[in-house]
Every structure is written in structure tokens, then in C-alpha cells.
Amino acid sequence: MKFVKASVCLSVLLALSACSEKETVEGHLSNAKTYLSENKVNEGVIELKNAIKLDTKNAEARFLLGKLYLELGDGLAAVKELERARTLKYADNKVLPLLARAYILTDADADVLALTDAAQVLSSVEQSQYFAYKTLAALRLEDIPLAKASAEIANDANEQGVYAMLAQAYVQLAENNFEQAQTLVTRILTIDSNLPDVLMLQGQVATLMKNYLLASESFKQYQQLQPRSGVVQLLLADALLKAGEYLEAEKYADAILASISGQPFAHYIKAMARFQQQDYKKASEHAEQALSADFNQFNLKLVAGASAFHLKNWEQSHHHLSTIVNYLPTEHQARRMLAVSQLELGLVDEISATLGDFDAENEDDVQFLSSVSFKLLELGATNEAKKLIERSNQLAQPDANQNARQGILKLMMNDPSGIQDLKDAVQLNPEFIEAELALAFAALQANDIEQAKTIANKWQEKYPEKAGGFNLMASIHIKLEEFQQAEQQLQKSLAIEENNVFAITEQLRIARLQKNETLSKERAEQAIALYPYNNKVLRHYFGIYKNEQALEKLADAYNQDKKNIPKAMLYSEALIVLSELNKAISVLQAFEHESKLPKRYWQLLSLVYRQKQDASQVQSTFEKWLKANPYHIEPVVLLADFYAGQRKFDRGLIVVNRAFDYHPDNLILQLVKMQLLLNSKQIEQAKQSYNKLALTDINDNLKKGLLGRIMLLERKYTQAVPKLESFYTAYPSSQNAVYLTAAYLGDNDKGKAVQVLEKHLQKEPENARIKTMLAGLYLDNDKNKAISAYTEIAKQQPRNVVANNNLAWLYLEQGEVDKAFEHAEKAMELAPQIANVVDTYGKILLKKGDKRAALKQATRANELANGKDVDIELNYIEALIANSRNNEAKTLLSALQPKTNAQQEKKDALLAKL
Domains in the chain, start-ordered, CATH in brackets? Predict the structure, then answer.
């Protein structure tokens, strides 16, 4: 072991009295000795300093001053004066033993050893004293053989003398023979109870033997004998701290810090004492100061982490506790603190390692695991929550509280077995009202009306003086849309508990469900007067009025507590409804730096930006949401869909693949990934994903749809058709209608493709996409239907370029040039850079007889098409001929290579014109 080293760095301001001309060195020395004999230390110091001032080489004055400093415990000052006395040839037999001790106080162990040769001239008693100090110096330098040899010499020099026993005690302590060391110390103190070095050793031995009261008493006696010793204050404060005397220990730490403000051990004492007094702010401050000085004790880090935890400084708590968690017992409270800190910081993947083999052994353990599970569910970390719930279900004896908590947590995870847990809780404790209430509403949610009614009837019979049973029965009747019976139950509830908020809001809900506007407003006014700041009442109130006056009610509630997130969200929702989007953003952004914001917050913020059509902010909001809550599925899906809408499928896939780190088996993510792979036509990867999905329990029609889409991409149209038919029948969306139509067209069954679109249009008569596809199919064999379809589309979407351009062409073919021109102009206004639009416009101008304008547009169309569209080039040549530019027309016609029969026929007709 290593001994505590004495290191004293205290400065003392001494007022030096002026020497009169008549004063002599001898006079000052005489005065000093007199003062010292009277225990007037300060006066003695002044006289000795005055003597030295008159004669700097006075060895006796130096020796006496050094001895005095040593008796005060001021090692540095003692070394200075005793070394000077020795240099001035003061007697070694007096100086050496004292100088050796001064070196011990200043940790100058090598200097102690260097005095060995000079010590040979000392008397036996003096030698025993010196070699005792040499023993300690050798031990501190970890030279055990030298220490033992020195102890032997001390003993030989003065057998059974106090210093010989002190040397042996040092050796015994070094060998961890605490009892033997203590016996020797006791024997010495019996001989001389005021030996400082023995008292110091007794304090150290007592500390190691955990006898902190004895240690503190020893250090107190040492301090009385050596008042200028700095190190003993620290040792004393530490002993008092370990003895549970926190306030007394703190006084010594305060005294040290008053002189040395950065002393780390004193800050450690303060941190420990303040923590015991539950002054976590001060405990944290002192712990941080000690740690910043590299005082990295285990207990200090524990106090720093625990104090930060109580102050809800999660990052700091995690920083300190994570470094010591591996050394903590499984059941240690700090492990729980670290787990909660990790939870608050979203470091869910670290929680399992932190809790290690922590198992629920009592009710407190179960409650803790349930609480963490609940928080994990809030974060979306369902798998991690399930693991902890399993651990919390290991109590030997069944417990109603445990069953109730477990049941509620399971229901939160959509696990219906939670209802059985609640039933078990009620069976274990029939008086467990909260569990029975949860069971009743769970049964109601699961449409188990009989179970809910049984509980409601029981409550009404057993607790007729309480409103709960009537409120529950009212909820059952509302669920069954038996509003009159529900009203009766609520009236009974209000008769028992006047103006209870549940009954008031349920009455209001009934009026709204019945769409009774007058009654709804009447009840809303009553509710808002009674509960002006209740969120449920406020939501109903605004839902009824949806005007500025109603908004003022929400604004008032929000202004009463601007840090209340639910109220801020309610207020922002209302602002969005009234299109006050910038104000809604301002309200929501006030919370952007809060941790663990609810899903609804992010949903509202992204909704505002979507309504403002601010794509960059929509993207940014999804990304912030995902960063803040990596266990939420919603931001992953929304961000992936955002990228898919921009056709940035690879970026969407990156987002989804990263999310698998948090949700490795999540079916929704697998389906989103599958959609992205299909949309980006990554066939092989889509096949791999399908093989995994095929093993899951997703709907068979969904599996057929995914496989059908893969076949569609592979152009296996015949195999794709039956798969996509089943898919569309099960999920008749417009997108699935498009997939099925594409399969029929690929399979050369245009008639069935038309039937699919026509049938779907009956379900969604305003679906412009389906109308556009259907009109395109009509183009080949039923121009009138095509015109009718495109006309509807143009009315529904006046800025639809395809509809206007195709109508122009169709009307041109039917000879209705004016109608054709009307739609061609509209298309040109909307898309003047699309080659086909410009070509159509030019063709109609030519038909109207405006040859020069027609040639101008035909030229632009051909340039936009880069000469790669045969039909557009033929129309350009036709315009050239109409403007008598035959040579150019001939040159172009001779180089033109038609791709279809219709193009060849037109080329021949133009050649004939030439």
C-alpha cells in the first residue's frame, strides 16, 4: 500500500515589528525563547525573524525558527530554515532528525534517504528517530527491503523506544497487518500521547480499518498539535465524511477552499456532503470542479452522475455514469439512473446493456421496469419494451399491480392478451378500481360490450355514491349509439358529482354526434364557462364554432401556459384550420429545442409546411423528426414517400435501410422498401425483398399484388394479370387500377384495360388520372369518347396540358378548327416548350391559312424535338411546302426514314405535292 503524503502549501502573513537601534540578536533570541516558553507562538516567530534580519547567518535563530515551523506543521518553511541552519554548521544531532521530519511533511523522500551518512554521528535515540523517518520514506518510494532494514536499525539503536516502535508500525501497515500496526500505535501513545506522527499513523490505520470515528479523533488531535498542516484537514474531512458527519466534514472543506479555491479533494468533500443533504445543484458544481482537476474517484463520478440525474441534466448524467456502470452491482440505483438518462437521450440501444441481468425482485423493481417500458413504447422502441415487460413478469408471487401495469403496456402494443392480465389483476384484488377501469375501457375498445356492462353494473351497485359507474355505462351506450340512454346515465353522474368534466364533455359529444348544432353550442358554452382551460373542452368548442372568437379561447388558454405542449398543439391546430399558417409555425417552433416531442407535434409542423407548399421545410421537418425520434416509424415512411414523390428513390431507400437498425423486423418498413424498389425498377432486389415478405403473415392478395408488379416490370404480362386482378379486387385503388390496366395492355387485351378504367371511374368519377388514361385508350378507336373524356378533364383541370393538346388535335381531325384553335392556344400558354404542343399549334395555324405563322411554329417544334420525331418533321415539311420552300422540303423528305405505314403514306403524299 501507499501512505498518504503530506503536502502543505499555506502562506502566512506575518507583521514584522521594526527593530530599534538598541535591539540585538541576543535580545531577540532571549525574547523568542521567553515567548515560546509561554506558548506565545506568533510573538516568538516575530522575535526570531527580527534576529535573522539583524544577522542572516545566525544558525541558532534559523534552527529555532525551523523547529517552530515544524511544530506548527509548516513543512516548507521548516525545510527552508533547517537547511539554512545546517549550512551554517548548526549541530547535526539537533538538526538532522528535525530536517528528516520536515522532508517527510513535504514529500521529499529522496532527501530523507540522502541524510543517511550524516546520521551516523547521531546518538542512539536520535538515530532511532531518523531511521523511523527513513523507514517511511523508503516505503513511500516502494523500497520494502530498505524500509525493513531501516526499521531494524531504528530498533537496534533504541530498542522499545517510541521511534523504534513507530518504524515497526510503518512496516506492519505496509504489509496490511492493521491489527499489529494499531497495537504498536497504542503502545506508543501510552508512552507519549502528543506525538504528531503517531497520531497521523493512528488516523491512517483507523481509516483503513473503517473505524472512522477514531480516525477523525486522531486527525483532530494532530491538527491541534500541527495547526498549519494542510493535509490533515483533508484527511480529517474525509474521515468525518465516511463517519457520516457530513456537515462537520463540510466545515473543514470550506476552510480549505477559503485558502485554496481550486483544491480538488475539498471540492470532493463538498460534493459528497451536499449530495447527502440533497442539494444536487451544489453537489454537481463541486463534483464538476473536482473532476476538472483530474480527481477521478469512483464515488465522485457517481455523485456527479446522480446529481445531474436529479437535476434532469441527462447528457451530464449519462457522461459520468456510463464510465462507471461496468463496476456497479446489477441492482445498484445508479444503473437505473443511467438507463433513464439513456432513455431521455434516445439511446435506446444502450439500455439493455446498462440494465444487464437486472431482474425484478420486488414491487419497486417491477414498477421501474414498467415505467421504462412505457417510455420505450412512447419512443416507438416496441421490441425493447417487450424485453423489459418480460423481465417484469418474474415475481414469484402474483401481484395485482404488476398484472395491471403489464396489461396496460400490452394493450399499448396492440397485444390483446393484456385484457387477461387486467382480469387477473382484478381477480387478485377485487378492490383494485384502477385496474377494473382499465379493463372496462379495454373491453369497450375491443367491442366486448358484455364485459364492460358487467363492470359498469357492478360499480353502480357497489359505489352508488360515485359517478364512475354511470360515466362508464354512458360510454357504453354512446358506443352503441343509444344516445337517450347515455344521456340518462350522464344525468345521474352529474347528480352525484356536479359538473364533473367527463360527464360534461360526453354530453357535448352526444350533441355533436347527433349533429344538433343548437344543443352543441349551448353545451359548449356551458362547458367552456366551467372549464376554460381544459383541452378536451377547448377542442370541442373550437370544433363547433371554427371562428376567430373560438380561436381566442384557445389563445387565452395557451397564453396562460406557453410551455404546455398539448395546449400549444391544440392552438396551432386551430390556427391551421383558419389558415393562419405563419402564426401556427411560430407557436410550434417555440418548442423545437425540446427533447422527446410527441408525434402530433411533428405531424402538425409538417402539415403547416405542406399547406404552405414549402417542400424544403417539409423535408427538413421529417429529417429533424427522424433524428429526434429514430424509433418512430412515421418520419421514415413520410420521408421515404417524400423522396419517392421527387423520384429520388435511392435516397428513400437509404432512409428505410437505416431505419432497419432500429426496427429490424418491421413489416411496414419492408413494404415501403418493396414499393421503392418497384417504383425504381430494381427488379432483382425487389425479388429478394419479396422472398422475405412472402414468409410473413401479410394478406395473400397483397403478396399477389407485389408479385404481379414484379412480373409487370419483367414484362411477363400474362402471369401478371391474374395476380393484379386479385390485388385490385382486394384493394380497388386508382393506382392498382393503373397496374392492372398496364398488365392488360401488355397482354394485348385493350378491351379489358378499358373496362377496368371505366369501372373504376364509376367509383371515382372525378379521378383525372383515370380519365386521362381512358381518353388515351379511346384515341385509337372511339374519337367521340376521347373528346368527351378530355372535355371533362379540361373542365375539371383547366391547366391540364395533355387534355387541351389532345382536344385540339381531335377537333382538328373533325374539322372543327375554331374549337381546335381554342384548346391549342391554351396548351401553348401552359407548355410552350413541349414539342408536341407547339407542333399541334402549328398544324392548326396551317389549317386556318396562316402559313407564315404555321411555319414558324413548325420550325420551333422540330427544333425542340431535335429532328428525332418523324411525325413532327413531316408536319414541318408540310409547312415548308405551303410556304413554297420546295427545295428544303425535297432535301428533308429524301433523308427522312418513316417508321410506320401512316408516316410512309404521308411522305408519299408530300412528295406528290412536290
Answer: 359-446 (1.25.40.10), 449-513 (1.25.40), 832-914 (1.25.40)
